[in-house]
Amino acid sequence: MKKLIALFAVSALASTSAIAGVALSGTSSVSYDDNGSTGGALSDGKSATTYDADLTLVGTAGSTTFTYSMDLDNVSPKVSAADMASTIGPITISADMHQVVEDTADDGDGNPVAVSDDTGVTISLDAPVGDATVALDNSGNVTISGTWSGVTVSHTSKSGGDTTTASAAIAGMDISVTNKAGATTWTLGTTVSGVDLTLTSAQAITAAFGLTGNTMTISHVAKVATANATATTRSVAAVKAYSTVAISRDLTSGAALSATYSSADESLTLKASVAF
Fold first, then answer.
1. Which among 23, 141, 170, 274 would be 20 to 30 A from 69, CA to CA?
2. Rounded to an integer, what distance in angstroms lies between the CA atom of residue 174 and that of residue 150?
3. pLDDT at 130 over 80
4. What is the pLDDT of residues 21-42, one digit of tens each?
5. In the beta sheet, which residues pair with residue 183?
6. Which residues lie closer than 8 Å to 106 by C-beta, 6 or more apart?
7. Contact 101, 80 (CB under 8 A)
8. Three-state secondary-structure class, residue 106
């Protein structure tokens, strides 16, 4: 009998250890959208109810982590992510094992002409040169990144055009600048009298008021200019600038309720969600 008790204790300990290395999280929501009253390209004027449910599993064993995510609100659940990362001394190996099926429809959104392979392996080395990290992926792209004097810089060299990003917190402002193939964009964030403000180079502005669990966010979405199709991307249709107001409140039931109004089509969206 004692041997059986000891065997059960060992089995329970092994099971607990295995479960301790697994983290499960997810979100679920239901939204009602009256789809506005203006009709046209942005709305057909008919109300609609949509659903969303996602589940993420993270397994950790030592310095190796595996992340697996699924989109559950389909006739057949779909994988949305499958990534593994492992650190061996100064080397980190990351593998993206999920092929995303991109939207290639020619509907004015600038979608890609063809689906690209976004799976791959990246090997990173923490080089002892000013805290720099050097990474090489299976496409031949080389990335050098690090933080110097409070400024975080990342530079990726690839055939489609180099990308350089620099970010820093200066005098209460969070600044990020990105240059991709010669085109520069930037984002500026700061807090004024308890209001979180974000401004982008595209002239988009966001202001968030309130405390965690009870917030209101006002956004101005910049207009989109027409862009002709290229060899790799579809054309982009012009969209006028518009504004949104979103109010979100955490409920005592554990769920969150939000209401969003958009001037683009005069629509109101009500959303109830829960995260665990």
1. 141
2. 12
3. no
4. 999 999 999 999 988 865 444 4
5. 180
6. 229, 234, 235
7. no
8. coil
Name every residue whose Cβ is closer than 8 Å to that of residue 183 and which is 6 or more positions away in sequence: none
In one-letter notation, the amino acid at residue 121 is: V
- pLDDT value at position 45? 60
- CB distance 237 to 221 below 8 Å: no
Exposed (0-12), middle (13-18) or buried (19+): which is 200, by Cβ within 10 Å? middle
Alpha carbon of residue 147 to chain centroid: 23
Q: Is residue 269 within a helix (H) or strand (E), and if so which, with residue range? A: strand 267-275
**Ramachandran angles phi, psi of 19, nearest 5°:** -65, -35
User: Which amino acid, one-letter code, is at 55?
Assistant: L
DSSP characters for 138-156?
A: TT--EEEEEEETTEEEEEE
Answer whether 188's CB lies under 8 Å from 166's CB. Answer: no
Tell me if residue 81 falls in helix, strand or coil: strand
Instruction: Report the sign of the C-alpha dihedral through residues 236, 237, 241, 243, in that order.
Output: negative
